[in-house]
Design goal:
Blueprint lengths: L5 E4 L4 E5 L10 E4 L5 E3 L5 H14 L6 E3 L18 E5 H6 L5 H8 L6 H9 L15 E3 L3 E5 L2 E7 L9 E5 L4 E3 L17 H12 L5 E3 L8 H23 L4 H7 L14 H12 L10 H16 L1
Helix pairs in contact: 5-6, 6-7, 6-8, 7-8, 8-9
The structure holds zinc ion.
């Protein structure tokens, strides 16, 4: 259970379900209460998503007809089964990677009595979740590009902006009410972290949404914001990209490069140590790696853990 999970009305038909925690797994969701109901993302586990569905039922009593998954990370889709009977819409890049990581594996790590050092941090971060009931419930409707849905005359655009945070990133745009649901293309007051994708494409994705001039922006993690949240996240990615390219040219290690970066206002965002993952990504790009080239995520997360240790000292 999330004691802080709260529903907020943003416009005539749009609602955001926000979680006060912003770190690993504490994601937001959205509801468009029109045309049979459309939910944007389920939550990380079944109890949390049942709580979410209960909140949505207060404003949209019928079970929603549609569920959009913004991407394949479990904190946005492992509760899908709760919305039984809904059409589940996602980009092909989400559908293809949907089963990449098994909830059974997460539950095994979460419940380890004495986890090995490499798993200790994720074991701790998962302490308040419960993956035991999760049955992977994949998309039933796969899209390959931008799509516009008609919810009883209300236009809802699904914009494919990936690969940014992941390959299948979809942004949901409620055109007439100026609301966007960003998935993890936006972390607000929280440091972003990306997987497959590229820094430049991520910046481009955010710029595209800035061009829509939304009034209400629902990030994947962190509180609802306006366009200034998009601008801050884009500036972070631009600043980290530029500093990392300089570090790469000087031959600095990732952690030494991190030490040269003055986080300034970004130091107050949650999870600032994710900087190491973002520098790693730019380093891979400087070395010529394609956006979907496999990489050693263990090495990346070791540097994230080490930077966390150094920043906490
Ligand atoms: Zn997420």
């Amino acid at each position: 259970m999330s004691p802080g999970l709260a529903l907020r009305r943003l416009s005539e038909h749009a609602y955001a379900a926000e979680q006060p925690r912003r770190g690993t797994g504490w994601s937001n969701s959205g509801l468009v209460a029109a045309g049979g109901g459309l939910v944007v993302d389920s939550l990380y586990d079944v109890p949390l998503t049942r709580q979410l569905a209960g909140l949505y039922a207060e404003v949209h009593p019928d079970a929603p007809d549609r569920l959009v998954n913004t991407h394949h990370n479990g904190d946005h889709c492992w509760g899908n089964q709760v919305f039984e009977g809904a059409e589940i819409i996602a980009h092909r890049g989400c559908a293809d990677r949907f089963a990449d990581f098994a909830p059974e594996r997460a539950e095994a790590i979460r419940t380890m009595a004495d986890p090995p050092e490499a798993l200790r941090s994720i074991h701790d971060e998962w302490a308040d979740f419960d993956f035991s009931e999760v049955v992977l419930t994949p998309p039933t409707q796969v899209v390959d590009g931008d799509v516009t849905l008609d919810l009883d005359g209300l236009a809802v655009e699904l914009l494919h902006v990936g690969p940014a945070h992941t390959e299948g990133d979809l942004v949901v745009h409620l055109v007439d009410e100026h609301v966007v649901f960003m998935g993890d293309v936006l972390f607000h007051n929280c440091t972003p972290i990306g997987w497959e994708g590229s820094t430049d494409r991520w910046i481009e994705a955010i710029r595209r949404v800035e061009g829509l001039a939304p009034d209400h922006v629902v990030p994947g993690h962190g509180p609802v914001c306006g366009i200034e949240g998009l601008q801050a996240a884009r500036r972070y990615l631009e600043d980290v990209r530029d500093a990392s390219r300089a570090g790469w040219e000087q031959g600095l290690s990732v952690l030494d490069c991190c030490a040269t970066i003055d986080l300034g206002e970004y130091a107050r965002w949650d999870e600032p140590w994710r900087l190491a993952a973002n520098v790693h990504r730019v380093y891979r790009e400087c070395a010529g790696a394609a956006w979907d080239a496999p990489f050693d995520s263990g090495e990346v997360m070791r540097d994230v853990a080490e930077l966390k240790r150094r920043l906490s000292d």
